[in-house]
Amino acid sequence: MGRKWNNIKEKKASKDANTSRIYAKFGVEIYVAAKKGEPDPESNRALKVVLERAKTYNVPKAIIDRALDKAKGSAEETYEELRYEGFGPNGSMVIVDTLTNNVNRTASAVRSAFNKNGGNMGVSGSVAYMFDATAVIGVANKTLDEVFELMMESDVEVRDIVEEEENIIVYAEPDQFHEVQEAFKQAGITEFTVAELTMLAQNYIALPEDSVPQFEKLIDALEDLEDVQQVYHNVEFEEE
């Protein structure tokens, strides 16, 4: 199942390194998760997931605290979670998850990004059925056998455990996210190289070389949109 997760994350982190965009997106996501329940990760599982993700992307504590304080206060901004699906060059598939306080603005912006970069929007369900919601949790300084044994001893159900770029990555059902993390924490492992709830394609494709720049431009355009939280696709790039 492994999709070279660490390479994907490194490319994203590199792209975001010189901007505050990723921090702003996490700020909104933390606020929304905190507003869904108590602004306490110990009693709000959705918030706990977001905070674990933020930790792996090195989101500053000040950003996290500001979002939590906003949720604890009188602010009542309303955000909707919307998913858009579409196609890129050569039939590539793309999923775009958004958090928005202006549905018309977001829909128009996402559609424009597709249209201007060789893609087109699809109807709801046209792409998502080819992806699986997945918990992805990674650790360093452990062997494949050690992690496999740990998951077995903890009686945690996982889809796959693989070694990727000197990290051990556990793939599991989304509802097993906390169980996998807890198994690691019980073994004294509290630092994670990856902690994500994501959408992984059931089958990945390689684009013709001349289509890759246009596809990358499409993904960049979507990720640059203010209301877009996550972009998933089924294109596998060659290792550089």
What strand line-up does the widest sheet have?
3-1-2-8
State the order of secondary-structure elements, H for helix, E for strand.
HHHHEEHEEHEEHEHE
Distance between the termini: 21 Å
So, the CATH homologous superfamily of the largest domain? YebC, transcriptional regulation domain
Low-confidence stretches: none
From the alpha carbons, calculate the radius of gyration and give it in angstroms: 18 Å
What class do helices, strands and sheet pairing give? alpha+beta
Domain TACO1/YebC-like second and third: 79-235
Domain TACO1/YebC-like N-terminal: 3-73
Keywords: Cytoplasm, DNA-binding, Transcription, Transcription regulation
Family: Belongs to the TACO1 family. YeeN subfamily.
